[in-house]
Write a structure and sequence with these properties.
With 364 residues, this protein is an alpha+beta fold. The protein is built from nine helices and 15 strands. The strands form three sheets. Strands 2-1-3-4-5-6-7-8 form an eight-stranded mixed β-sheet, sandwiched between helices. A five-stranded mixed β-sheet has the order 10-9-11-15-13, sandwiched between helices. A hairpin with a 4-residue loop joins strand 7 and strand 8. The chain starts with 8 loop residues before the first helix and ends in a 12-residue tail after the last helix. The structure holds 6-O-phosphono-beta-D-fructofuranose. 6-O-phosphono-beta-D-fructofuranose binds next to loops.
Amino acid sequence: MPLSKRSTLTQFLIEERRRFPDARGDFNALLLDVALACKAIARAVAFGELGGVLGNQNGDSGGSVNVQGETQKKLDVLSNDLFTRLNEWGGHLAGMASEEMDLPYQIPGKHPRGKYLLVFDPLDGSSNIDVNVSVGSIFSVLRAPEDVVKSGRDVTEADFFQPGTEQVAAGYALYGPTTMLVLTVGNGVNGFTLEPNLGEFMLTHPKMQIPADTQEFAINASNSRFWEAPIKRYVDECMAGKTGARGKDFNMRWIASMVAEAHRILMRGGVFMYPKDTKDPTKPGRLRLLYEANPVGLIMEQAGGRASTGRQPMLTVQPTSLHQRIGLIFGSKNEVERIERYHAEPAKVQDDNPLFHERGLFRV
Ligand code: F6P
């Protein structure tokens, strides 16, 4: 299709806005600033070693550690700076929160404050940076509480404690063989590919839909001894393939970059699991609710898929802390619903399922 026949992200957003005659344009301006941050990160990622951006933030010995206790990469810090710097000045935001910052980021006094909150993981999957495997950025937009907007006061952590159903937009940028921005503003999911010569995101994947069924699953199987029974049952049944309860063969993938995994699932179906497990009793899951599970959850649901903790729909979870971790399962609707069913009947799993007896691959 010739370039002139495709919409740019700007055109798409303006046309979307026409559905809301009262909208002033702040929301679109915010999303364009986020897109600019993603383009800047895409450039930094593309230069790799040549740009001097690989490796740990403070060298190989020790390095600096973020609030999650994870070693920060140079690109984590750079991406976080780009996100904050390119989004703080426009007057659309009341505050920001990021995986890389312990506390909420206050809009500096020299800039006006606005009515939205931006929450993000500026570089997801950062263990992949140094080995040239896909990484991404993921973000969520919430409305700031009314009193924040009225008073212009500093934001507190509690201002961000809104369930995923309250998100007004969510998206991710994937820095893979091509750079893509995938976005929902609550009216379906649309995918844009970065046209490198123009530096514009062009609409290439309108109205993305996830197939309801799949034969592909993604999980870090090295954690299998820590999984709860419903997950063991599900994976065991997938592994048993044609000869087992599911009567069909499954394939497995694990990129260790949730954004890349979400994108594959959006394109061709699949199910992703980083479930609650018993590996570290202080951590109820690996991934973070506010800037990983909720935005990916909204994208999945808007594309006809599903996202869940296994026990409740992800978007209904009431957050209680900024960097809260949670068990996350998302993807093709029928598979996620099956896993939820297995969680609803745990006793049955252990008692009745022959796969958990002698011949089970992952015995309880
Ligand atoms: O920060 C989260 C993350 O990097 C995800 O992008 C990815 O899915 C997961 O962690 C990988 O975890 P593991 O190292 O256990 O494979």
